[in-house]
Amino acid sequence: KAGVTQTPRYLIKTRGQQVTLSCSPISGHRSVSWYQQTPGQGLQFLFEYFSETQRNKGNFPGRFSGRQFSNSRSEMNVSTLELGDSALYLCASSLVDSTGTDTQYFGPGTRLTVL
Amino acid sequence: EDKVVQSPLSLVVHEGDTVTLNCSYEVTNFRSLLWYKQEKKAPTFLFMLTSSGIEKKSGRLSSILDKKELFSILNITATQTGDSAVYLCAVAETSGSRLTFGEGTQLTVNP
Questions:
Q1: What distances in angstroms separate CA A74 from CA A31, A47, A71, one per listed residue?
Q2: In DSSP terms, which residues pair with B33 in a beta bridge?
Q3: Which positions of chain A have pLDDT values less than 70?
Q4: CA A72 to CA A6: how far, in whole Å?
Q5: Which residues of B touch A55 (CB under 8 A)?
Q6: Alpha-carbon gap, residue A33 to A48, rounded angstroms
Q7: DSSP A26
Q8: pLDDT on residue B11
């Protein structure tokens, strides 16, 4: 099976702009989660989507939003970019198994640089 | 607030050494603990642990969970330079797929 794919892989934006990142999960996976990774804060949970509904949300401002489509592909959007939004954005997909547990598999990430 | 603490934060060893990485957690609704290895980009999955005392093993890597004392260890025996990476510990809650990550342990294996 193909792994989690993310596009674009690298992005450079300026302050005030907005950006949309895309994630395609592993085939059959219905849960998609987004994480922000920075040297200072490590990996932090942004939000999770399951069957097109946001199921969980981290402590990020409303400038960070997302959505999931019927084919489980997900997008996240960041509006009014700030310098501190520069980070590696990772998407992870998971398949809940019969025991109710799941393993999250990560994509390669999108490296966003805000100038 | 949920918390995951890893130690040590950094470790330098020689090829052939055995290392033990630690992870302790405080999570309200614990479901499972996961270990990942991160080299350049995406974290790659190593283990998922849900039950106490049952060792998971994959080649030279093994891990065990203690749900009473709220910690897990990751052991790597006969280390190789290819084991150099950041090892991340994460805890999953009972609701949803949210993972809370520790800061990671930077392992450097010198030849």
A1: 10, 11, 9
A2: B49, B91
A3: 1, 97-101
A4: 13
A5: 95-97
A6: 4
A7: P
A8: 97
Four-point Cα dihedral B4, B10, B14, B17, nearest 10: -20
pLDDT at site B14: 97
Stated length of chain B: 111
Cα A17 to its chain centre, rounded Å, is 18
Residue type, B106: Q
A-facing residues of B in 44-63 (CB < 8 A) are 44-45, 48, 50
In chain B, the number of structural domains is 1
- Contacts of residue A82, defined as CB under 8 A and 6 or more positions apart, other chains included, come to A15, A114
- Nearest Cβ partner of B101 from A43, A48, A105? A43
CATH number (domain holding residue B86): 2.60.40.10
In terms of residue numbers, what domain contains B94? Answer: 3-110
